[in-house]
Amino acid sequence: MHNPKTVFMFSGQGSQYFHMGQVLYEQQPVFRRWMQRLDTMACDLSGHSVVDNLYSADRTKSEVFEQIRLTHPAIFMVEYALARTLIEAGVTPDVTLGASMGSFAAAAVAGCMTVEEALTAVIRQAEILEASCRKGGMLAILADVNLYQEDVLRNNSEIASHNFASHFVVSAPYDRFEPIEAFLRKMGVPFQRLPVTFAFHSRWIDEVESPLQSHFSSLKHQPATIPIACCAHTQIIQALPENYFWTMARKPIEFRKTIEHLESHGHYRYIDVGPAGTLATFLRYILPPTSASKMQSILTPFGRDMANLAAVTSSAGSTASFAS
């Protein structure tokens, strides 16, 4: 059997928490070097240190971390620094997969843009949203997506993400949360508010389409040196399509369909380089028992980050090319 191709998976908003990656920051020199380099860039662009806020002793992991001017660059920085840590340890991706805001790190690692350009885009996107977009949020719902056919959900929200058969996410303005949550409680359906302050992947961010498109149009794109699994288009792409980053923020995240597309081409070593191992968790419910694919995560809110990193880097990843 051929060695499986390696997929780096980058998650987006909702996966973040204070102190994510702190153990690596304190104990892993490559990760720390990249975090410090990126933090210098972030300070120059925004005037404040993401690292100081992220790893402040005054914050706890259980505290809600939702200020987008911090969460946007923090997620990108942690994901990119972790990806570089793996690459410098000899674990190289054959495919990058970005879900929502994770698309920026996926594109940077894939060689479509420089890390400086990607971080600038992330910070500018957050600034535009804060300045011009109506506040809203996202609810993760643990139920079959057919539940969305209920009027209270269809009339008050839009589907933001299909994660696996019994897990989907809806977006809505804050003033529409009450009837949705009351209905879910009545039905006994588990749900959770995500630490997100805008209704991503829905019509309620359309008001910032023009400034975001104007911003994104100034970005310089190069053909990918590593193929990208796109969770908006549910296919492998070799170059960023027109309006790519707006599409990734506006269209639903089709994680399940994207994984199914990958699996139709073979088996993989999926490495979750996100802050919480969220996408690896979703994979457990997507991959059939017959799949030869494996999944690994590194960062979690529950510790063991260094041990998890050691397990991933104990054997170098495949460098075979992807054939779609």
Structure summary:
With 324 residues, the protein is an alpha/beta fold. It has 13 helices and eleven strands. The chain has two domains: 5-133 and 203-313, Malonyl-Coenzyme A Acyl Carrier Protein, domain 2, CATH 3.40.366; 136-193, Malonyl-CoA ACP transacylase, ACP-binding (Alpha-Beta Plaits, 2-Layer Sandwich), CATH 3.30.70.
Detailed description of the structure:
With 324 residues, the chain is an alpha/beta fold. It has two domains: 5-133 and 203-313, Malonyl-Coenzyme A Acyl Carrier Protein, domain 2; 136-193, Alpha-Beta Plaits, CATH 3.30.70. Helix content is 41%, strand content 15%. It has 13 helices and eleven strands. It has helices at residues 22-27, 29-46, 50-54, 68-88, 102-109, 115-132, 151-154, 177-187, 209-217, 244-250, 255-263, 278-286, 305-313; strands at 5-10, 95-98, 136-141, 158-164, 167-173, 191-193, 228-230, 235-237, 253-254, 268-272, 294-297. The strands form two sheets. A six-stranded mixed sheet has the order 8-7-2-1-10-11, sandwiched between helices. Strands 6-3-5-4-9 form a five-stranded mixed sheet. A hairpin with a 4-residue loop joins strand 7 (228-230) and strand 8. Helix 2 (29-46) runs antiparallel to helix 4, helix 4 runs antiparallel to helix 6 and helix 5 (102-109) runs antiparallel to helix 6. It starts with a strand and ends in an 11-residue tail after the last helix. Residues 317-324 have low confidence and may be disordered.
What is the count of distinct domains? Answer: 2
Strand content: 15-25%
Terminus-to-terminus distance: 19 Å
Helix count equals 13
- Spans of at least 5 consecutive residues whose pLDDT stays below 50 are 317-324
Which value, in Å, is the CA radius of gyration? 19 Å
Which fold does the CATH topology of the largest domain refer to? Answer: Malonyl-Coenzyme A Acyl Carrier Protein, domain 2
CATH superfamily of the largest domain: Malonyl-Coenzyme A Acyl Carrier Protein, domain 2
SS-based structural class?
A: alpha/beta
Kindly provide the name of the CATH class of the largest domain: Alpha Beta
Name the helicity range. 40-55%
What sequence of helices (H) and strands (E) makes up the elements? EHHHHEHHEHEEHEHEEHEHEHEH
Shape estimate: globular
Q: How many β-strands, per DSSP?
A: 11
Rounded average pLDDT: 93
CATH architecture assignment of the largest domain = 3-Layer(aba) Sandwich
Q: Name the strands of the widest sheet in spatial order.
A: 8-7-2-1-10-11
Largest sheet: 6 strands, mixed
